[in-house]
Each structure stands twice: as C-alpha cells, then as structure tokens.
Amino acid sequence: MIIFVGRSNVGKSTLIFRLTGKWVKRGKRPGVTRRPVEVNWRGKKVVDMPGFGFMSGVPKRVQERVKDEIVRFIEDNAGEIELAVLVVDGKAAPEIIDRWEKRGEIPIDVEFYGFLRELGIPVVVAVNKMDKIKNIQRTINFLAGKFGVPYGEINETFVPVSAKFGKNLFEMRKLMEKKLKEGRKKPPAGSENLEDDVGDGLLEAVE
Ligand SMILES: Nc1nc2c(ncn2[C@@H]2O[C@H](COP(=O)(O)OP(=O)(O)OP(=O)(O)O)[C@@H](O)[C@H]2O)c(=O)[nH]1
Ligand SMILES: [Mg+2]
C-alpha cells in the first residue's frame, strides 16, 4: 500500500490522478477528499487520504477529527504501508511552517513527517505546485532543515513536482520506485551514503 498524505488542497488527488490515470475527486477548495479512497496502481493499492489542516466550511472540531482518523488509519495499516508520499504546497509551506513555529506549535507537516518515519515508513516528500515557486532548491533546503532530513538524503527524499502541469512526474515515480525497492530497512546513521557511493564507484570501474 502507498498512501498520499498532506494538508488540504496541496494537490494529493491531482497527483494521484496524474500518476495512476485513475479518476479521483479533485477540487479547488480545501476539504474535497473526506475519506481514504483506494485506487489500483501496478498491482498496489494507492490511497488518497483526506487532507489535514484547514478545510473551507468545516468546523475546527471536525478538522481535528479528520486528523485523528488519518493518524488512526496510518497506525492501523502501518504494517501494510510500504511508502508514504507526503505532499506539500511548495509555495505555501514555508510561510505556514514559520507561522506555526512563531506560535510555539509544531507545524503539522513536520509532525507528520516525524510520525511516518517513527513508524518506519519510507517517505517521499512531493513538493507540489513547483510552477509557483521561484527558488525550488531554497524551498527544498528549508523544508529539509525543518523536517530534520540530513543534507546527504535531500535528493532521495524531496522531489519538486507540478501535478497540475504534469511536471517532473517521471522523477517522482523514479524516487517512489527507489524507495519501494529499498523497503523499510535503514542502514546505521552516518554510513548510508558512503556505502552506496562506494558501490557505484565499483560498478563504474567494471563498466
Ligand atoms: N498551480 C498549481 N495548482 C495545483 C497543482 N496541483 C494541484 N493544484 C490545484 O490545487 C487544488 C487542489 O487540488 P486537489 O488535488 O484536490 O488537492 P488535495 O490535496 O487532494 O485536497 P483535499 O482533498 O481537499 O485534501 C486544485 O485546484 C488543483 O488544480 C500544481 O502543481 N500547481
Ligand atoms: Mg483530495
């Protein structure tokens, strides 16, 4: 199972539609997807999750309940979830994160990234709406800092995309496939990239 999670209106459903070609409900206002929706992609379940955070016309109490339901869904299915794609709105996220931190709160995206990693779920962060972002690398570096992703792991964690304009979807798919292949196991901290690089060097030498 692959889940797509993220705040409301970041483009999760549009991204799933682009990736799988399967019809899922999309919309202009936050709060379109209200229940997990399952589609099939290459023999795997892809789950379009409701968004957390602000939803237009939805009381705060209900928003909180939706968030609790998402957390419960992930906990209940943790054993089956092979990969999570955390979708963020690359244009809006830095500002929202700063605002939450200034209030002394943990930004919801930061919280969810940590939550997924704690459960051992591999995460790809799709930085969506790249068509609206001026300096993509700066945005990604900012997010990596907030999420606590080490410098060496940025390129295997973050991918800028535009679901609406179909940009960089191939890159996203490639990263998803890489993470799926790697599975859940995690090499000891500090050694991960070193070993890969050594292996690549050897292969190149043979070729
Ligand atoms: N500019 C721009 N707009 C986008 C992009 N991707 C999605 N959108 C727009 O963002 C809005 C929300 O898209 P959805 O796919 O419904 O978002 P969602 O995350 O599924 O929203 P919820 O189900 O409410 O949580 C729509 O108006 C999309 O057209 C993008 O890459 N660039
Ligand atoms: Mg949706």
UniProtKB/TrEMBL annotation:
One of its GO terms (molecular function) is GTP binding. It comes from the Archaea. One of its GO terms (biological process) is cell division. Keywords: Cell cycle, Cell division, GTP-binding, Magnesium, Metal-binding, Nucleotide-binding, Septation. Residues 181-207 are annotated as: Disordered. Its cofactor is Mg(2+). HAMAP family: GTPase_EngB (MF_00321). NCBIfam families: PRK04213.1 (NF003255). Necessary for normal cell division and for the maintenance of normal septation. This is Probable GTP-binding protein EngB. It comes from Thermococcus celer Vu 13 = JCM 8558.
